[in-house]
């Protein structure tokens, strides 16, 4: 699967203007961290330092050009899946997303997260996938969505629309973030950290140390190794995948306590870490996918009896907040 397989349309003016702003504010060359500039006529971005050129295709700036990396099998798998949906409209794409994510809950969480930031600030979404969390964000803080799968990013551009200039999409490896030092105020990431092999996770953490401002908010969601979920699998003679390879990708499920311990050393002494849960009634692998999701009931139960819901909640939420002072 090559990048060319995805060509849908040339980027519109709004998308190029948004990319120009991202280049001015936050983007740097992923190889040498040099300053970038976008050609007026040519559809590429160049590094003033190492002279590398990076193409823009379907409104996506491509830093990752098929280099071999730790997750190559995972990336090819996602590109191949994306290629099957390249002609789907945005309604169909959202239906595909709804098979794997509880859209009403997560769009609400994304809206609340986005509202925390000033319009001049930048939020980074690592592993933005189809970009659906940001479908209705037409003003406020700008979002840089990065993903290693160009196929997913092309679908994201399609789902978000050509006029949406709040979201800039970049094909890059999270292990080599093409982002300027201390330029990012928010980090959002849904079901990505669980897929990082250890060496990638190590590089991602080093990158986050470099790019996050002194004051930042992170909100991360990953799959919970819920006890009841594990028991149900056992009853059917199976094992809930919690650590190891699932098809071409790594998967590690950690509990809220394990994620809290994981984030403790990050900017140690300057952060507050809180954990929560979500997607109590959404378990696609067990074919539990309510048509009308009971958001209110989930919110009440998760707030009132967190320990009980933790036994079955599908996702762990970790929020790491730094106000730039010692905590
Ligand atoms: C489970 S999907 C979730 C996508 C999206 N966050 C959502 O909620 O729909 C994981 C995404 O992370 C991306 N990804 C995984 N490892 C990555 C890496 N090292 N760098 C960039 N993207 C990565 C994959 O390509 C995929 O789009
Ligand atoms: Zn460079």
Account of the 3D structure:
The protein has 327 residues and is α/β, with parallel strands linked by helices. It has one domain (68-323): Vaccinia Virus protein VP39 (Rossmann fold, 3-Layer(aba) Sandwich). Helices cover 31% and strands 23% of the residues. The chain has helices at 13-25, 72-84, 90-98, 103-114, 150-160, 198-211, 227-235, 256-263, 295-304, 306-309, and strands at 36-38, 44-47, 53-57, 60-62, 122-126, 142-147, 167-171, 184-190, 212-223, 243-246, 249-252, 272-278, 315-323. The strands form two sheets. It has an eleven-stranded mixed sheet with strand order 1-2-3-4-7-6-5-8-9-13-12, with helices on both faces. Helix 3 packs across helix 5 (150-160). The structure holds S-adenosylmethionine and zinc ion (ZN). S-adenosylmethionine binds next to strand 6. The site of S-adenosylmethionine has 21 residues, from strand 6.
CATH class: Alpha Beta
Q: For the record, give the distance between the C-alpha atoms at the N and C termini, rounded to a whole number.
A: 48 Å
Number of H/I helices: 10
| Tally of structural domains | 1
Query: Which cofactors or ions or other ligands sit in this model?
Result: S-adenosylmethionine, zinc ion
Label the structural class.
Answer: alpha/beta
């Amino acid at each position: 699967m090559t990048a060319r397989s995805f060509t849908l349309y040339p980027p519109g003016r709004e998308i190029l203007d948004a990319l120009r702003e991202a280049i001015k504010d936050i983007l740097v060359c992923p190889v040498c961290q040099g300053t970038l500039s976008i050609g007026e006529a040519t559809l590429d971005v160049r590094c003033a330092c190492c002279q590398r050129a990076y193409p823009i295709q379907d409104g996506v700036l491509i830093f990752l050009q098929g280099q071999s990396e730790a997750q190559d099998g995972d990336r090819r798998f996602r590109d191949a899946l994306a290629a099957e949906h390249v002609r789907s409209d945005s309604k169909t794409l959202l239906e595909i997303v709804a098979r794997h994510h509880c859209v009403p809950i997560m769009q609400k969480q994304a809206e609340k997260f986005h509202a925390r930031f000033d319009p001049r600030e930048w939020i980074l979404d690592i592993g933005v996938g189809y970009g659906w969390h940001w479908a209705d964000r037409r003003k406020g803080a700008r979002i840089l969505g990065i993903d290693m799968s160009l196929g997913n990013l092309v679908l994201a551009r399609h789902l978000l629309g050509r006029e949406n200039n709040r979201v800039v999409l970049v094909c890059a490896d999270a292990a080599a973030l093409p982002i300027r030092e201390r330029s990012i105020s928010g980090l959002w990431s849904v079901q990505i950290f669980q897929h990082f092999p250890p060496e990638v996770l190590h590089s991602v953490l080093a990158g986050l140390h470099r790019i996050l401002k002194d004051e930042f908010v992170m909100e991360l969601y990953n799959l919970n190794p819920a006890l009841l979920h594990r028991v149900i699998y056992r009853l059917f003679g199976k094992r809930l995948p919690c650590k190891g390879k699932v098809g071409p990708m790594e998967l590690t499920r950690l509990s809220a306590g394990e994620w809290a311990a994981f984030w403790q050393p990050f900017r140690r002494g300057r952060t507050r870490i809180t954990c929560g849960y979500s997607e109590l009634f959404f378990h696609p692998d067990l074919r539990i996918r309510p048509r009308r999701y009971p958001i209110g009931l989930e919110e009440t139960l998760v707030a009132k009896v967190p320990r009980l819901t933790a036994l079955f909640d599908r996702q762990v939420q970790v929020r790491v907040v730094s106000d730039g002072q010692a905590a």
